[in-house]
Amino acid sequence: MKKSALLAAPALAMAVAALPATPAAAADSWSFQAELAPVNNSTAAGSAVVDVTGQEATVTVEVAGAPALFQGAPYPHAQHIHIGGQGVCAPPTADADGDGAVSSMEGEPWTGAIGVSLTTAGDTTPASAVAVDRFPAGAAYTYQRTVPVDAATLEALQSGTAVVNVHGADPAALSAAAQAKVNPMAPDLPLASDVPIACGVLAGSQMAVPEGPADTGVETAGTGSATNGLVGTAVLGVLVLGAAAAGLRRRAAGGR
Ligand SMILES: [Cu+2]
Fold it and tell me: Among 52, 147, 234, 249, which one has the highest count of C-beta atoms within 10 angstroms of its own C-beta?
């Protein structure tokens, strides 16, 4: 019995070693999701999905409960993928100047700087951080656009440190001190236009699936795991064949 197990083991090990390379078609595409939760005492919330293929990402952002109007017009809500920080939304304690609001600048050590500006048209680099005429506006919206992603943004997404921030607070919801300040990135606008109202950390669904022999189950979805399932069956086949062959050899040697 011991001998047959030993004979079967190398065949299994070889088959398993080939597993991680099998879903090669999925190697340059990933999906990331974030639940956007209210920050800075806002009522805004929603979700973000970032589907990366190669050097492009289709980004979908859904927001509801945001301030509707700003100076009588639909309130433009700047939205970005922040990268290079700690990969968390800024906590209330990030309010360094004590005005009751955590501005983008104050939150940057946590969220990171802007990697992608999720504009509705044109440029999507950090240069468009406050391009208020090219962001979705109003109390609720669904945004979808395919944008370029650079290496730094892709790295942040893959390491789980990319953070989606939606900006544009209701001035009336801020303290008098915060209301009196200007947006440091656009001094003709009030600080309120900069203050984050919803935030979420992007987590990769595919990244959560570990590669290796343990991942041959049927619980996970997608083409990658379907392939794994097939390979898993093949591994089992190899094992059965190996054991059968070993059994035959053992029987022949034993003479029974
Ligand atoms: Cu931002």
Answer: 52
